[in-house]
Amino acid sequence: MLVRHIFPVSSLFSLGGDESRVDSRTIYVGHRPSTTEAFIPPKFCDNRIVSSKYTVWNFLPKNLFEQFRRIANFYFLIIFLVQVIVDTPTSPVTSGLPLFFVITVTAIKQGYEDWLRHKADNEVNKYPVTVLENGRRMGTESEKIKVGDVVEVNEDETFPCDLILLQSTRDDDTCFVTTASLDGESNHKTHYTVPDTEKDLDSLSATIECEQPQPDLYKFVGRMHIYKTDREPEIRSLGPENLLLKGATLKNTQRICGVAVYTGMETKMALNYQGKSQKRSAVEKSINAFLLVYLCILVSKALVCTTLKYVWQSKPGQDEPWYNQKTQREKETNLYLKMFTDFLSFMVLFNFIIPVSMYVTVEMQKFLGSFFITWDRDFYDPEIQEGALVNTSDLNEELGQVEYVFTDKTGTLTQNNMEFIECCIDGFQYKYRDAVSELDGFSATDGPVSKLQEKAGKEREELFLRALCLCHTVQVKDMAGVDGMEGCPPPHEQTGFIASSPDEVALVKGAMRYGFTFLGMESKKMKIMNRSNAIETYDLLHVLNFDPVRRRMSVIVRSKSGDALLFCKGADSSIFPRVRQEEVEKIRVHVERNATEGYRTLCVAYKKLSPEEYARADADLQAARLALQDREEKLIAVYNQVEAGMTLIGATAVEDRLQEEAAETMEALQGAGIKVWVLTGDKMETAKSTCYACRLFQRGTELLELTVRTLEDGVRKREERLHDLLLEYHKKAVQDVPPTKGWSKPSQDFGFIIDGASLSMVFNSSESSSSHYKNLFLQICQNCTTVLCCRMAPLQKAQIVKMVKCSKGSPITLSIGDGANDVSMILEAHVGIGIKGKEGRQAVRNSDYAIPKLKHLKKLLLGHGHLYYVRIAHLVQYFFYKNLCFILPQFLYQFFCGYSQQPLYDAAYLTMYNICFTSMPILAYSLLEQHICVEVLLDNATLYRSIAKNAMLRWVPFLYWTLLGVFHGLLFFFGVRFLFGNPALQANGQVFGNWSYGTIVFTVLVFTVTFKLALDTRHWTWINHFVIWGSLCFYVIFSFFWGGIIWPFLKQQRLYYVFAHMLSSASAWLVIVLLILLSLLPDILLVVLRKSSTAFLPRGRPLSSCCRRRPALTASPGVTEVSPSPCFLLHCPPPNTDHDYHSCSSLVCFATPLACFLPDCFCPPYGNVHYHLHPLNSTSR
């Protein structure tokens, strides 16, 4: 009978051991305590996964609370309450309805997203599983699994919770899993059953002690006590190799059984899906700043009107005219209270200057705009059959503002597709004849092993190749296909190897080229076939796992002769200090040369352990692996002890080819004014070679090196040498460099190289000097075109990003990487990009955007980023502009109505102006606008500079849009007032009233702001036409119906037939048309002047033939196969001329800073040449 109980932690102390276990949990499987004392089993969480934020009961209060935490929503709520409580000139509906619309749309969006999360949770929680209970297989649902249950999982099924592997149908007591849903690795990983467990789990009596839940996917500490009759309990250590994680999938194994140790929200998968910190874009900060300005304008207007009202009423007869006597209650009201309520009334009257609907429009623009990245066909990679992924839509516009790119090397700049190139044994170089290499121009001679100068001894060759065949964690997927090998087929035919790292597969395949074939492992016995086709068997005793701190891994095996051998491979910086120094020099030459050629190098060493050494190492490893506290530290101490005093055999060189179009992408980013920093854990020579291959370092680049090698000085201390070098480099790269204007290129390019050890000295010096060193280091780096940081730990990568992000000017940073070691810098940067590479999907999971290849970064930034920024910048400025146009006539009207708070517009117009009449055109514009076609943006990276540093949302363009709004507002109000100079405007002599006045102003307003947007539109689609002309038609139809029908729910019908009577007057028609033309005259003149001035310029060569019918940025319906984007020509001086065809002092660009922010006037200077972009033909609008 199988019994499962969970006992309190206090009972652990009776089990022996020298550690405190307060941070552990105990799970009893099939074992009842021998004592009869009462106990209360602790309750662990059930196996339900909850990723949703809301329930049916708390959705409304929780969502409302979150929404009203936003300043704008809270402000409009206060305004609405003031309208309800205080007698204000406008109905509460005017502010309540827009607020309700905003809150409702946001709540629906968030509720829908949460419903999708609930749906996904239910699919997981209701998943059918099999549990062994009382010796029987019972079917149940995943959410009903409890800690301690024994769960059965079949092949190709996912694990429903975190399990300790107890039993497998494989003969070698292993199972294979893929963790694609956790870290994206499709490679098969091997997991092992707990040794000496009962085959019949019904009779298993065991206790598991393990650490409390923690999110690290690759760490697990525990031990298992196996109880047998009349015997002492057997203790077995548990590690990550015994833990099967929820979400992983069972592969190549018929069935396994495991005991649940973590369930539900305590599983490692659930702990890893905790929310990331919220990132805010620079546009949001600009919006908040502009909002404060308009809030000040609002308060100023209210104060001015309140003050002037009481000044005007202080005159005799004005406060209480004969036709409007005050009531007794009004006479007794406190003067200051009355002034305060009047102030609030004016605030309510003018509150529409704050564009509350802008927040909804911006949110919708970001959400819908993110689909354009997902739908972009250029981002689709047929190899992995995936496209781009958007995890965060809030940062779309930030892609157009990037100033620094921090990139990983392996898997990002390179393919992480390893190919064995050559090896070095005892200082002699070996290269296989089929290896693809141009190293030193050498062409290999016949034979599997090529001799360059001399050969090492046969014994050393075979020892080296045995080390490559044994020192790894590779598994053979199909052993039958490998056992039958007669020779060494080409590498592309070897498809049976399973490994978590492509490096290991490359080395095993490299050994096959030289005659040693790894055949696989059975029951802890590793089999290899040597050159004589004889099979050698080795007992695998211990694996000393690789970790990024040690930068090496080892195995301890026993040969048939009984010798215990340790084989170790790792980075040269990790191996060289642990071998005899006289062996190092002859290998170092080859390692450094291979690194200079851009190859990844590993050194190989071995050690023969005496029986006493092995016995001591075995005991220490067993003790460290059984520890619950500080297990990692204890294991590393033992590893360091065992791996001392080794003998160096040789080194390997593996090529990691550059990513497709990596050099072109880096060149384009630098052309766009973006500084690229490479942060890698690789050695300096390899990384430097990659930088040259990617054109980050040019032939004329002067390299400034700050590494351990340059800091070595027999006379002075390292810190003194560090100080001197920093001062020397600062003088060379900062002080002695003449200042440059704008984006002009400096006379000398500098590249900076620093390693992890030197960086630690910069960051971790004494407090007095650390800040000084950081400032010097940062200034040097900012004046260099490229910075290379090698031998970097993941934390150091994040420190570098944070240092630049927090520097003066707060530059926008972007980090891009493909591995787990890049997650820290991806999370630290303003924008994080994950590459869907071969090192797993942790980077993708934690990124804001994910792309299949590095080459896609070019279009993501220079194309999508540029357009997103221009669109949302125009959206923000346009919203403030149209609201200022809307409310300024209302303010001016108070000067002519005795400051009586009389509204100029009807309540329906106040309510629907931002919701219906003017919202859809700007939303369509912000989604579809292409002021410059994408091909030109990609061909001319310098155009990216024109929008750098938040250029379109600075105070100068904001002032331009504000003055434009003031000009239009004044024109609307006084133009209509001029019309009303003749009161008899109708044929029957009937005069217009104040509602007619406001309706004419409002009509001119709606048509003008809509036509203004139409003039700014460069890329027309049927959607733009539909929403622009549809909005205007809707306004006219609504006005006819609103004023042409007596609505029973209205107490007073202010606009009854007002709109119809207005349009019956020829004078009203004339004024409306004239005022619209006068308002838009500057924009029309600008277009005409621009076209006429560029017509006389010599025609340049088109940069891109994009004037063809092609899909737009996306494959979305309704946007593809539309009217072509406006195509632009770049006017460049023809050869042998010094003409400057366009300068910013010309009519086209005016002579003001405003020019470069106008919609299609981008004039980025490059050297002494100024460019001007203009449409090919007049119909492109």
From TrEMBL:
Its cofactor is Mg(2+). Keywords: ATP-binding, Magnesium, Membrane, Metal-binding, Nucleotide-binding, Translocase, Transmembrane, Transmembrane helix. Mg(2+) binds at residues 408, 410, 818, 822. PANTHER family: PHOSPHOLIPID-TRANSPORTING ATPASE IG, PROBABLE PHOSPHOLIPID-TRANSPORTING ATPASE. GO terms for cellular component: early endosome; endoplasmic reticulum membrane; plasma membrane; recycling endosome. Its EC number is 7.6.2.1. The keyword Nuclease does not apply. SUPFAM superfamilies: Calcium ATPase, transduction domain A, Calcium ATPase, transmembrane domain M, HAD-like, Metal cation-transporting ATPase, ATP-binding domain N. Residues 844-1091 form the P-type ATPase C-terminal domain. ATP binds at residues 408-410, 504, 546, 569, 600, 680-682, 791, 797, 821-822. It is found in: Endomembrane system; Membrane. This is Phospholipid-transporting ATPase. InterPro entries: ATPase_P-typ_cyto_dom_N, ATPase_P-typ_P_site, ATPase_P-typ_TM_dom_sf, ATPase_P-typ_transduc_dom_A_sf, ATPase_P-type_domA, HAD-like_sf, HAD_sf, P-type_ATPase_IV. Residues 41-95 form the P-type ATPase N-terminal domain. The active site is at 408 (4-aspartylphosphate intermediate). Pfam families: Cation_ATPase (PF13246), E1-E2_ATPase (PF00122), PhoLip_ATPase_C (PF16212), PhoLip_ATPase_N (PF16209). It is a multi-pass membrane protein. NCBIfam families: ATPase-Plipid, ATPase_P-type. It is an enzyme of class 7 (translocase). It comes from Gadus morhua. One of its GO terms (biological process) is phospholipid translocation. GO terms for molecular function: ATP binding; ATP hydrolysis activity; ATPase-coupled intramembrane lipid transporter activity; magnesium ion binding. It catalyses: ATP + H2O + phospholipidSide 1 = ADP + phosphate + phospholipidSide 2. Belongs to the cation transport ATPase (P-type) (TC 3.A.3) family. Type IV subfamily. Gene3D superfamilies: Calcium-transporting ATPase, cytoplasmic domain N, Calcium-transporting ATPase, cytoplasmic transduction domain A, HAD superfamily/HAD-like. The chain crosses the membrane at residues 289-312, 343-362, 958-980, 995-1014, 1026-1047, 1067-1089. Residues 127-268 form the P-type ATPase A domain.
